[in-house]
Amino acid sequence: MERLSFVDLEKNSYRNIWFLAWPVMISQILITTLNIVDMFWIGKLGPSPVASIAIAGSIMWVIFALTQIFYAGNLAMVARFAGRGEKERIKTVVSNSFIIAFTIAIFLSVSGFIFAPSIFKLFGAEEIVSKMGIGYIKIIFLALPFFFGAFVVFATLTALGDTKTPTKITAVACLFNILLDPLLIFGIWNFPKLGVNGAAVATSSAHFLAFILGIYVLYKRRYIQGMVSKINWKVLGNILKIGIPASLQGITRPLTGMIMFRIVAFYGTKAIAAFGIGGRTLGIMFIYLTGLMTSTQTLVGQSLGVKRPEKAEDVVKKVLLIGFVIQIPIIILYFLFAPQIISIFNTDHDVIRIGTNYLRIITLSLILIVFTTGFAGAQTGAGDTKPPMIASVAANWFIKIPSAYIIANHLHLASKGVWIAIALSVLVESIIVSIFYYRGGWKKKKI
């Protein structure tokens, strides 16, 4: 049997977890840095361009969630076949993942380009903001095939246990984007002065570069030579069967997040500011949690591929331990220094007060997100994506939104009631995911 995995399942699980996790964490840091740099340059153009990019960003979060339709299925199936050393089956999965990715991307590119004005109307933005945002998002939509194609490459390499190569590609693409931003936004060195559209061209160019580099890597490793070009309906169906629930789970948060912003808006601009600042400051947690979840998905998938569910369980236990060791000190720091953290971004007394309430209430619940990371990661890596979807939909749509309205209004807790509702949804999601995990259905999942 040909060894295809970059990790040795016989080695210590802690070592394998960190081997896979740290490059993913670096990727998250790079992407966060790019977003900050993007906003820095666009901020030089004034408040309207910033607002247009913020709205476009909300749209892109939904688009990003749709990548799970092929990403989750690709990762789960390639990880299984990598564990078994079945390269030809991996090629079939990769080819059909590309078919799905390009089909969805082309549909979104065309429909998004046509309906961009209507989409921006839903946000109720001013005319100048909408005009800038429409131009920006149209360019991004046209580059979606490259964006989605790069995700197929990244899913394949990650499932094989190679998270370093996607990180290297991400680093090159991010650096390229950062260099292009000021040139195309402000027209430096004879480059055209495109304003907000320049940022979109820079981002789209980076997506194209990442895709080309990814295809080159797959070609060098002989994963696309002789690749099956026709549709394999069974494989394609399995990818969608795994991916659609994962995508629904992913879409849930950005959609309910928009609704939560509307609820918070009832309590004024300062509440919105506190909500936005608080959410961004907590983003650091998801850098390492994403790394741990990726490790879990890959190692669980490969362990089940060689029919070693006990090894998969060992990985999950160690991921939970690592998660708690990292999460608990950070939660304590956020709780104790919440006022100081909020004041870094805004010195308004009311914003600091509301933001402090947000951080202290939310951080108390975030110890539970370690369970969601480990257990949902195991289920997704096994290809059993319905339980995490059920947990996410139940917690966000049926707990978070209704309870935010009830607690904030009928219990007269205002914005603090919204924060309590968010914490309650985290609790419910972790409980549901844990119940499904301990039932053990994920260990018997056939792919």
Descriptive report:
This protein has 447 residues and is mostly helical. The chain is 83% helix and 0% strand. The protein has helices at 13-43, 47-66, 68-84, 87-122, 127-142, 144-159, 164-186, 196-220, 233-265, 269-281, 283-305, 309-336, 338-345, 349-365, 369-381, 386-410, 414-439. Helix 3 crosses helix 9, helix 11 (283-305) packs parallel to helix 15 (369-381) and helix 15 packs across helix 17 (414-439). The protein has two domains: 1-231, no CATH class; 247-447, no CATH class.
Briefly characterize the structure.
By secondary structure, the chain is mainly alpha-helical. The protein contains 17 helices and no strands. It has two domains: 231 residues, no CATH class; 201 residues, no CATH class.
Q: Output mean pLDDT.
A: 90
**Gross geometry:** globular
The H/E string reads HHHHHHHHHHHHHHHHH
**Helix/strand class:** mainly alpha
Put simply, the count of helices is 17
List descriptors.
447 residues, mainly alpha
Topology of helices and strands:
Elements: H1 13-43, H2 47-66, H3 68-84, H4 87-122, H5 127-142, H6 144-159, H7 164-186, H8 196-220, H9 233-265, H10 269-281, H11 283-305, H12 309-336, H13 338-345, H14 349-365, H15 369-381, H16 386-410, H17 414-439
Helix pairs in contact: 1-7, 1-11, 2-5, 2-9, 3-4, 3-6, 3-9, 3-11, 4-5, 4-6, 5-8, 6-8, 7-8, 9-16, 10-14, 11-12, 11-15, 12-14, 12-15, 13-14, 14-17, 15-17, 16-17
